[in-house]
Amino acid sequence: MENTEIIKVQHLAKNFGSFQAVKDVSFTVNKGDVFGFLGPNGAGKSTTIRCMLSLIKPDNGQIQLFGKDLKNHRNEILSKVGSIIEKPDFYRYLSAEKNLAIFARISGKDVSKREIAEMLDFVGLNGRNRDKVGGFSHGMKQRLGIAQTLLHQPDLIVLDEPTTGLDPQGIVEIRNLILRLKSEQNKTVILSSHQLSEIELISNRMVIINKGQSIIEGDVKELLNAQEMVVQLEVNDMEKTLNVLNLRFGSASFKQINERIIEVNIEKQLVPSLNQTLVQEGVEVHAMEPKRKLEDFFMKIIQS
Amino acid sequence: MLLKNTYNEFIKILAKPRSYLGIGALTLLVLLILFAMKADGKSFISFVTASFEQTLSFNGNILNGNLIAFIILQMLIVHIPLLVSLVTGDLISGEAAMGTIRMMATKPISRTQIVLSKFIAGAVYTLILTLWLGFLALIVGKWMFGTGDLIVLNSDGLVILKEQDILWRYGLSFGVAYLALLTISTLSICLSAFAENSIGPIVSTMSIIILFTIIGTLDVSVFDSIKPFLFTTHMASWRSFFEDPVPWTTIRNSVSILVIHNIVLVLIAVYKFNKKDITS
Ligand SMILES: Nc1ncnc2c1ncn2[C@@H]1O[C@H](COP(=O)(O)OP(=O)(O)OP(=O)(O)O)[C@@H](O)[C@H]1O
Ligand SMILES: [Mg+2]
Question: pTM of the entire structure?
Answer without folding.
Answer: 0.87
